[in-house]
Every structure is written in C-alpha cells, then in structure tokens.
Amino acid sequence: MSVATILAVIVAGYHPFAEDGGIYAAGVKYLLDARLYPHDAAFAMEPSRWSLFAPMVAELVPLTHLTLPWMLLALHALSVWAALFAAWMLAARLSLRSEARTGAVVLLACWLGLPVAGTALYVMDPYLTARSLATPAMILAIVGALDATQWHNSERRRRGWALWAAGLAVCAAMHPLTAMYAAFATALLASIRARSRAVRVWGVAGLCAAAAIAAACAQGFAPAESAAYVRAALSRSYWFLGEWRWYEVVGLFAPLGILGGVAWLGARRGRGPVFRSHLPASQPGASGLLEARDALARMAVTIGVTVCVLALLLASEASTTHLIARMQPLRVFQIVYVVMIVMLGGWLGDRVLRRSAWRWGAAVVLLGGAMFGAAQAEYPGSNHLEMPWMTPRSAWAQAFEWIRANTLPDALFAVDADYIHAAGEDAQNFRAIAERSALPDRSKDGGEASIAPDLADMWARGVAAQAGLNAIGDAERVSRLRPLGVKWVVLDAGAKTTFACPYTNVSVRICRLK
After folding, report:
1. What mean pLDDT comes out for the span 476-492?
2. Residue 269 binned pLDDT confidence (cut-offs 50, 70, 90)
3. Do residues 337 and 252 make contact, with C-beta atoms less than 8 angstroms apart?
4. Considering only CA atoms, which of 155, 300, 326, 311 is closest in space to residue 234?
5. What percent of the chain has pLDDT over 90?
6. How would you class 121 by CB atoms within 10 Å of its CB: exposed for 0-12, middle for 13-18, buried for 19 or more?
7. Parallel, antiparallel, or unpaired: how do β-strands 488-492 and 508-512 relate?
8. Which of 92, 287, 294, 397 has a CA between 20 and 30 Å from the CA of residue 48?
C-alpha cells in the first residue's frame, strides 16, 4: 500500500496552496495566528463553518511540533494511503483473487487525479482538504454497508454496522455534504441487498422518491436570494448541467453505461463479468461476492440516474432559488467514479494483467503516464510536487512569498479579480501563501460566496473594485481601492503604473497604492 501511495502522489502531483487546498490552508493559518486576515477573516474561515477539518489540523501542528507545510504533506499522504486501503477493502468484498484487489488499488492510484465529469471535482484532490479525509471514510462506509447486509454471518453484520457508522461519522465531521450523499448511497445499497423482494423494490423506489420530494420541498421553501448572491451562484457554471461541455456530459454517462452493463449482465447470467473468479461458482463465498458486485453496480447506477434527474429538474440557472444547485447533487458521481474504478481495476488485474510482471509495469506506465501528463498540464508554471523544502517555481507564488516576508500582517491587498487565470498563476491562493488580506476574487472567493449567501455582497464589491485592475489607470485604481482601505496592489509585470513597486519579477509587480 505504501508503494501505491507513492505512485498516486507522483502521478497526481502535490500543490498544497492551490485552488481549494489554499482556501483550507488559509483557514488553518488563521486559527494558528489570529493576527492574520483582519479584513477578510470571513472568507478565510468559511470552509470551517461546518467542518472540523481546520480546527483538527490547527491542533495537530503544535501537538506534533511539525510546521504547517509538513503537516499538510503528512496528512495528504495519509489520506491517499487511507483511500487506497479502503479501496482494497472494497475490492476484497468483490473478489477472492489478490490480482483483482491489486488491480483495483493500482488503477485508483493512477486515476486519483481523474476529473469527475464536469463537477469541478477530482476523485481525490492533489492537495489536502476536508474532502481528502472524507473520501476514504465514504468508501469505508460503503464497505460497512456491504458487510452489514451479509445476512448469513451475524458477526460480520455487527462489524459492518460499526464500520458503516464510523465511516459516516468521520465523513460528517470533515465534509457534511459528502456524508449526506454517502448516507443516501449506503441506504440504497442496503435496500438493494435486502432479503425481502418487497424491500428491494419498494425500498429503492421509496428512497429515490423521498430524495426527490425532499429536494423539491427544500427548493420550494428556500428564502429569496439577493442580486449579489444570484451573481455568485450563476458564476458556478459546473452547478448547472445545461452549461457543461459535451465531453463533460460524456464523463457523466459513460460510468453509468459501464456499471449498467455490469448490473445487466449480472441479472441476466446470475453473475457479472467483472471480477469473475477462476474458481467455480460453487466455491464457498464466491456467489456472495458476485451478488455484492452486482448490487454495488446497481446502487451506483441508481444514485447516478437519480441525481441527474434532480439536477435537470431543480438545479437550473433559471430557477427562482438555487438551493439545490448549491448542494451540488452531481458531486455524488464521486461515488460512481470510485465504484467504476475499483471494478475496472479488478477486471484488469484478474483478467488481463494476472501474474505477469511486464504487463503490470506496462499498465502503470500507460495509465499512470497519461494522468501524469494531464496533471502537469494543469499546473504548467509550478513544480509537479511542491514539497515543503522546495522554492516555488511559479513567479506568482514567489511574489506572494515576498509579500509575506516584507509587508505588515494588517495590510490589505488588491489583485485582479481573475488573477488565478493569469498565465503561470496555476490557481495559487494569495491568502494561503502571502498570509495577507485581499479583496475577494471572482473564482475561489466566488465559490465561497455561492455557498454562504451572507458573503455575497462583500464578494460583489470586491470583484467590482478589482475588475480589469491591470488595464485601468492609476487614478481609477486609487478611486476604486482607497475607500476600501487597500494599501497594496498586485499587478501584472507589464501593467502601466506610476506607483512605487518595490518588487517585480517576470510575471508580477507589487506596488504601493498612492
């Protein structure tokens, strides 16, 4: 498992302060030092409103005497190891053969960085977030649900219920939304594996109907939204299935087709082709493994189809309120992707790779190499592995580090509202690296405002003040930014200005507002 963990980290890369990793890291830094972010603590702490992730990490830093960068790396590696271990346990419930289990783990290690359709979500992030710890807990909850429905083994059932409860509890403590979807998935799985045919049929139908009714009621009784919040919500194109590109839609339905084929063949033949053991079906335990596999496939297809219908009906840009869109139901497809990868990896190991060392090596090179190239292309201006002892390669990250070392903690900065899309910026988070306050940006802070409506007005003002910051003149910069208390501006290296700029590199200049 340790080798698979190293493989997974190398393939997916590691970027601790990029994208959501930077958002969570800023919250941890604020808990470690309350002097930080005096102007925008609400944005720094928003991810911790419903999660114990940031307080837990902030407690572990002094307890272990590790610096925060080393703690983030250690927990990231631990979360990857835990996800792969959970996948091994899941594969063990689906196959008697070690090759199938190894194949499931290896494929997941190679594909951890796979985007989950158009949900703006990876199977697992290349940085540490609350989802990093919720994901292995979610997989273990599914393993627990499979064990809890082993009707012929009372001891395994008891252990299964305990594992299911523990997995959901950890998941809820880290990421409540993931826990809610995991609870729905495991309830479906338990219904599908019920001994009574009536429970299997009406239990599944009832759960899907209950989810639809609850979503419709929540949408219908949701409070009115401000104009600023609507702008924040509509800036999240990945919330709305109608805004997805064609290949993102393919990424939604291809896994359903694969798993639907597994379920259909299982129903037709009495057992499916995936993880098919070379042992006879009469081998003790073999039929139970085949049934568990088919039930897992049916669960994934059912939950995927259900959320697609809900997203089409209720998560629309034209909706009067966007509560269901805010809950991002299509992120349930993280479960669908994990199930698909475990099954495909199991089939690959059992039926193709078997005991051939050169086949395993070729598979790792081909499958891992493709994802390695995609991961590098995602962060072209940064080191593929941004380790604590390394100097950042990104010129933007270098500028942010200069700010941390050469400005006062109470300084307020302005950066172009779309700075994370600048060439070579690679979504490196200003607050996490610079450890200074900044006016809200359009992208990552927009994501926080879309989840927390009370931040929407502040977000809208900040975005308006920083729109086109590199193209406007100094007089307009002053008129926009001075009333907000801004003391410093971060501009592109080529932006025209007469401000004093004590730091400049190939991409960025740091200037004092006159």
Report:
1. 94
2. low
3. no
4. 326
5. 74
6. buried
7. antiparallel
8. 397
